[in-house]
Specification:
Radius of gyration: 16 Å
CATH superfamily: Hexapeptide repeat proteins
Strand content: 25-35%
Number of domains: 1
CATH architecture: 3 Solenoid
Structural class: alpha/beta
CATH class: Mainly Beta
Order of helices and strands: HHEEEEEEEEEEEEEEEE
Number of strands: 16
Number of helices: 2
Low-confidence stretches: none
Largest sheet: 6 strands, mixed
Distance between the termini: 41 Å
Length: 160
Amino acid sequence: MSNPEHRTLKSIIIGIWIRFWSIVAQFTFPAQITTMVHRLRGVHIGRGSKVARSVLIDDSKPNLVTIGRDVWVTAGCQLLCHQRDLKYYRKDMPVKACPLKYAPINIKDGAHIGIGSIIMPGVTIGRGAVIGAGSVVTKDVPDYSLALGVPARIVKTLGE
């Protein structure tokens, strides 16, 4: 957990850079340009992958997101690498007092993230996996599987 009181000038400049390009990404097109802007923010994106314009990729630590080759992240998706650590939550305490915890997201080659899906911290989406529209992915999805729902559940895996 980083303490905002101990921020350096460098960390402030990096934060401004990340958030500036995050805003720019919302207004860019086609997807190739949007993808390039997310790379400028520090997102690791493989060759042939596309990120749609209205995708929100973590504003705190976009460098924790890795998107493999030939992945399509469709409109309205959210990839979140941080969340409140509720193990510290107590009665009569504001939730915002709980520290943030960070975990990477890894989307492997050939995956497809359906429109409006949310990928939570620490999740790996397997090679060739498909996430159905509007799904909330809280756990890893195996290679060549179809996951959908809230929370997302595996409904099919190729080869089984």
